[in-house]
Amino acid sequence: MEKEIKNAKHTSTPKNKKRKIINAVVKFFTDKKEAKIRKKQTTAKKETSTPIMDSDSDNESMVLCEKIINDMHAVFLKDTELSSFEIIPTVLNRNKSPVIHVEHNLGLESWCAKHVYDHAHRMLMGYKKQTVQRYVQQSDNLLKYLNVALLINPDVTTFWHIRRQLVQKNRLKMNRELKFSTLVLSKKPKSNEAFAYRRWLYSFQSHDAIDWHHEIGICERCADRSSSNYHAWSHRQWVLRNAPMLIRAEIMRTEKFMRKHISDYSSYHYRQILITFAYQMSYYDTEELHHLRDLKELINYYLIADVQCPAQIINIMLPDVDQAAIGEARLKSFLYCCNLAAHDMRLCDDQKNMYGERESFELHRRASLKFIVEQCVRLLSGDLMGIYSPPATPVQQQQFNTHLKKFDYNSYEFLRALKKSESLLGSKHRKWCSLFLGFDYESGAA
Questions:
Q1: Which residues contact 90 (CB under 8 A, 6 or more apart)?
Q2: DSSP conformational letter for 99
Q3: 384: which strand partners?
Q4: Which pLDDT band, with edges at 50, 70 and 90, does 385 fall under?
Q5: What is the largest CA-CA distance in the chain?
Q6: What is the pTM of this model?
Q7: What secondary structure does DSSP assign to 16-51, as a single string?
Q8: 88 phi and psi angles, rounded to 5 deg
Q9: CA 69, CA 302: separation in Å to the nearest integer?
């Protein structure tokens, strides 16, 4: 535009000079406006052609997803003993099937996982809009989408609910469903939906027909793969409540797990529940009652006394109690469970010396100490209302804590020595003992 204005100045007479300059400016803005219009027209053409290209791409993607889902469904039909599923990290499509099946292990390459899941989700939502009777009739076709969707993302409650409906309509077999939920847990060990589904399935089976040892094994594998696995340990508690005959095996297995996963407090907490449950059931191991080595060592440490037999332990820990009123089974369970708690206190001290400070060691040692003190106080206080049961509500817990604070520990040699010895472990521990055990250190009567 500047060039045209200069030409107008040099080639025109003074009269026409102004008119030509104006015309040059108008022409410049006109050309600029026309250029914008042409650009908009070009963009509009591109936009009108894009849906056709996207439609073709969507069709190709849908066909590919269907093929992958069918390949996975074929593996399910062929191999009824699948044990694990994983998403295998891959960057690009290598022009071959992304479904990998090797020795009862199923894998899906990661590049297609999102597209396959989105397609399966879309198809399932389409089925869900139909009536229950109608989509149940198409259960074979529905199942292949359910399997893929739940393996990739097992946290969708709606999909598990559809499986429940298919089970109730006898479209799915119970054993196959248990195996499928195990397969889901191999991919996501913290899947609460999968554990809840297993409990729901077991509600249709008799107690004797359930393989409780197998169920414990599944819980342990999930906890081993994923630390602080609340859902696995909660499911294990459910198994324990329904199969108390596993107490002895669980006592051994939990110690091995604690030694392997030293910082996973979930295992320590389950151990505390296990010991409490054993006492609730008045459980004891007859062979172990002949030894009680850890409890003897704990008493000797606190009192510097030579304790040899269970009768001496009872006289030291529970002096002047009415043993006949308490009952033989409860006394034996008291000795056995206190011995387990003493063993765990020693275990925590050994692990602390080996690995250094860990919060899990300190918390579990305190819980074990609390168990011993509380059981002594309950029996010494004449709490003979059946077998031991912990406070069920916060109000009951508060009432018992009040009773602990009023309890005269200094009247009993063992508890007095325990109180004094624990006071040597630092101000932080003394504060905890004062708060949760009712040890009165402020009065100076340690």
A1: 98, 109, 110, 111
A2: E
A3: none
A4: very low
A5: 133
A6: 0.82
A7: HHHHHHHHHHHHHHHHHHHHHHHHHHHHHHHHHHHH
A8: -95, 120
A9: 66
